[in-house]
Amino acid sequence: MDRLRAIVKVPICPGSEACYRVAVSLLLSPTSKTLTVPSVNTIFFNGDRVEGTRNPVIERLSDLQHIADTLVLKFGGSSNVWVIEASTFNGPFAVYKDFIPSVNQHGEPKEYCTAGFPASTSTVTLLSKCIEEVKKIIPRSNKPVSPISSLSQSEQQAKSVVLGFSKGGTVLNQLVAELSDHNLTCHSYSCSVQAEQQSWERAQTSIGAIEILPSTKECFLNSLVDLHYVDVGLNTHGSYITEYDVIARISTQVAQGDKTIRFFIHGTPRQWRDRKRAWIQEEKDCLVHLLRSESRKAGSKLQVSEKLYFSDRHPDLQMHFEIIEKLDVSLDS
After folding, report:
1. pTM (predicted TM-score)
2. Residue 125: Cβ within 10 Å count
3. What is the pLDDT of residue 17?
4. Mind telling me which GO cellular component terms the entry cites (predicted)?
């Protein structure tokens, strides 16, 4: 399968000067050279900027397109990959204001409030705008599109995987909070009906558009299957979700539904053994404990994996970035 690789700059709000840089690696049909439905959308939220290290590993893994290429290798050739950099920086600090309205000037959240579902809404809006930008650089095909082919493709509802790296973990926390307030069982049916209706309409009008992304925040939250915390950490509390009610609601929902949600907690000594920021490990341990406790109630529908990388090395900045290339995305890690 062919791929389109590019970095696009898009605002979430019309007329906004603040643009998100997003590295994409998207599936293309080998015959029509048009975008096609992936098996999974892998969405990576990047962290703070680190410049001037002169370390080739850090420099390589600070490159958004390199991260996208790395994730394609890990999540498979049938995946679409989106690597998102914050639209606003205060010095080196990434500020995801559109996704987490409560963040301060350093991008640190005061709380993870679900009112308005800002993270899921912003994710759908941002990626949809990325698609519009990408379409401008794809050579147009003169070949007619078969309505039957479009129908069979659009019935495939792509799953979503989200990774929060470093400061990007705050967006993942916000999404987890929103997921807990979202009725997975109810919206699973409504999203399925919506997809069938869209497929029928395309077949009737012979339009070759395909549903590459979930079209609403409800469908996006319902598509989430894997959530990866990748060496997250803040200079204040809030690196990990630690509220029992949040995890308990997710556990109850998946136990009553027909889907499985998997949490992956990846870390290095850089974050988990930082004595000056002991709360990072404490919050991580709390989240893992909550997930494991609730997984016993939900059975195999709620799963958790925890892995420490570079455990035999002294903490340094390089391992914080190097973990991206070393990620083990299998549950049996």
Report:
1. 0.90
2. 16
3. 82
4. mitochondrion
